[in-house]
Every structure is written in structure tokens, then in C-alpha cells.
Amino acid sequence: MVVLLAAPVARADYEPGVSPPGANDWSCVPSAEHPNPVVLVHGTFGDMTVSWNMISPALVLNGYCVFALDYGDRGTGKIEDSAAQLSAFVDQVRSATGASRVSLVGHSQGGMMPRYYIKFLGGKDKVDDLIGLVPSNHGTTQPLAPYAGDAGCVSCDQQMAGSSFLLNLNAGDETPGSISYTQVTTRNDEVVIPYISAYLAAGPRTTNVTLQDRCPLDVTDHLGIIYDPAALGWVLNALGRPGPADPAFRPSCL
After folding, report:
1. pTM for the full model?
2. Burial of 26 by CB count in 10 Å (0-12 exposed, 13-18 middle, 19+ buried)?
3. Over the stretch 179-211, which tens digit does the pLDDT of each residue have?
4. φ, ψ (nearest 5 deg) of residue 25
5. Which architecture, in CATH terms, is 38-239?
């Protein structure tokens, strides 16, 4: 049975470095039903503490070993360096749990950055699923993004549409390896513009989802998607079956 959770009340006293509920239990032993631990990867200006307070406990209740990390000075550092941090963390999770592969669930940059790890840092054989929630796969044309770069956010410049980083990342095969790729986006995304830039090239191991195609009244935006029950439904569907999320899946539109 799949268990869903409502979003918790937001708290102002969370501090970066505090694991979200249920995450980072290094004694967790993956079950036969869910053999791949789930690693949660936050987005730019985010951290694990505020990003995963709905998704982390929901995954734990559904029987997954869940881990989360902070990286890249709140995700503002050079994406290549953040991917190296992810690589080291994945190896730590694999060593602790005995799992050969992990599944990755990422928000915004956290849905795109792992693709650098997969393509260039040896992650291709260590990842089973990559699930991106509003991932910046092809960057953004958001007119305010360059100002964040001027303020010291290196990754913001790298996530501009047409950046040299993204041209390199997306050259050739966008979905290498035997990994299953699921992208979940929203028409109300005010950060990754246009919203369909979250999509990856179509293929048998790729599912691209827009929330409003199933839940027309869903008003979730870029930041809110990590607390959206419909998005959680897509995550659980992707993790709970072979391959990416089922394109015919119908989440609960609460």
C-alpha cells in the first residue's frame, strides 16, 4: 500500500545540516521489495533540512531507506564540484547499506546536477532511477537569473539556457546508461522557464510529466512542488516499478 502525507507546517527555526524526518539512518537495511536506497538532492539556495519534510517521511513510511545531503554552499557553487560531493555521498550510502545502486530524487538543480555525476563521474552504474522535480535540465530564460550570478551564485550562471555547462551536459545522449529517468514539472514554474525545459529527450527509459495534465487545478509552483501530494504520487510511482513513472498513472489530486 502506498502511503501519502500532507505537507507539514512550515517552521522558521530549521537549520541547514539537520536531516529531514526519517533520513540518514545509517543502520537502515534495504528490503527485498525496495533494495535501492533513495538519496534526496536539494536545489539552488536550498538545503536538505527545509526541502524534504514531506517526501522523506513519506518514503520511509513506504519502506525505503532514505538519505539526504547538503552540497555546494546551498547549491550555489560550481555544479561540477557539487556533483563530486554527490558522488562521494552515494558511495557512502552504498557502503553503509550494501546496495549496488541508489535512486535519486532531486529538486530543481538537484534533479539536473546528478546527470553530470551520471555522465562524467562514474554514476552510470550506481544509479537505478533519477527523478527530477522541476529539474533545470535545459536551463532557464528567467530574466532575474543573471543577477543571482552577479551576486556570487556560480551555479545560477551555469543554469542559464545556452550556458557552456548545459551545452556540454546535454550534448549527445541526455539519458545515458540503463537508468530510468522521470521528470515532473508544473506549468506554474516561475524559475525554470519555459517549464518544458525540464523535459529530457523521449525514449523507453524516460517519462516527462506536467502536473496539470492529470491535475488541472494544481497551482503548485517551482518551490511548492516538493510539498505537493500529486508530485509525491509520481515519485512513489517511479520508485515502485521497473523503469520510469508510468505515463498513464493518475495521482491523487488533493
Report:
1. 0.92
2. exposed
3. 999 999 999 999 999 999 999 999 999 999 999
4. -90, 100
5. 3-Layer(aba) Sandwich (3.40)
